[in-house]
Amino acid sequence: MIRLRNVCKSYPSGDTELRVLKEVSLDVSEGEFVSIMGPSGSGKSTLMHIIGCLDVPTSGSYQFRNQHVGELSPVELARLRNQEIGFVFQNFHLLPRMSALRNVELPLVYAGERKDVRRARAMRLLSEVGLADRMHHLPNELSGGQKQRVAIARALANQPSLLLADEPTGALDTATGKDIMTLFQKLNENGMTIILITHDPHVASYATRVIRIVDGQIVDDQGRAGA
Ligand SMILES: Nc1ncnc2c1ncn2[C@@H]1O[C@H](COP(=O)(O)OP(=O)(O)O)[C@@H](O)[C@H]1O
Ligand SMILES: [Mg+2]
Predict the structure, then answer these.
(1) Contact 196/168 with Cβ under 8 angstroms?
(2) Domain region containing 162
(3) Do residues 106 and 95 touch, judged by C-beta distance below 8 A?
(4) Helices 115-128 and 144-155 meet at what angle, rounded to 10?
(5) Distance between CA 129 and CA 110 in Å, rounded?
(6) What is the pLDDT of residue 224?
(7) Residue nearest to atom 8 of ligand 1 (CA)
(8) 222 pLDDT band (50/70/90 cuts)?
(9) Total structural domains within the chain
(10) CATH number at residue 19
């Protein structure tokens, strides 16, 4: 599904450049559940932004489902990002004035789905993440774990083939974090490909494969499919 080859990412920094990713090569197959671990500043989020087509490598190549991402037009890229990839963030990124239901419906509005289709799908997804009785609440009426469930339902709205999560339990207490990881595990068992960034070894242990990144390079890769 994902094929990165010799991916580098640099940012200009004064007279030199800051090399954030250094020759990263990585394959992820359909159906995998991968955790990415590494110290703060090691390049994890940068790598995830490239995988999620939110950013582009400085050099190297990226293929997503056999498409060369670097050769797509902006419109094709936006389509790929919206239709194929769901994102979950540490701080949920919910719109505060919209109910849980409307937050989950929003990507479907952008995708041009009809109102009855959007409503039905958002209700089904919120039920699947255990929030059938909280659909009409605003984010500030929900606990952290409930907010993250809404965010996960929203990430699934366009039926993506890949779910990316950057420190999804980072703002949650340990018990709530476990509940969220159990939900990711269930989604993976139902076929979703998941790549998740975490600091926490216990969180990482829910994945079937753990990649460690230090100073912009993959230093360890345990549990790779076929390895
Ligand atoms: N847009 C940017 N411009 C300049 N430097 C950046 C930018 N994004 C990230 N960096 C730098 O790249 C390094 C890696 O960042 P990041 O990928 O966010 O690390 P992590 O998620 O592992 O903590 C950091 O030193 C960060 O300051
Ligand atoms: Mg980060």
Answers:
(1) yes
(2) 2-222
(3) yes
(4) 130
(5) 22
(6) 73
(7) 46
(8) confident
(9) 1
(10) 3.40.50.300
Mean pLDDT, to the nearest integer, of 187-206? Answer: 95
Residues 61-85, mean pLDDT to the nearest whole number: 93
Q: Is 207 contained in some domain? A: yes
| Residue 139, in any domain of the structure | yes
pTM value is: 0.93
Task: Tell me the best of 7, 10, 11 to mutate to test the pocket of ligand 1, counting ligand atoms within 8 Å of each CB and taking the most.
Answer: 11
Tell me how far apart the alpha carbons of residues 180 and 149 are, in angstroms, rounded to a whole number: 7
Which atom of ligand 1 has the smallest separation from the CA of 11?
4
Question: Is residue 125 included in any domain, yes or no?
Answer: yes
Give which of 150, 91, 88, 94 is closest to 123, Cα–Cα. 150
81 touches 54 (CB < 8 A): yes
Ligand number nearest CA of 20 is 1
pLDDT above 60 (res 227): no
The Cα 49–Cα 44 span in angstroms is: 9
Q: pLDDT tens, 75-117?
A: 999 999 999 999 999 999 999 999 999 999 999 998 899 999 9
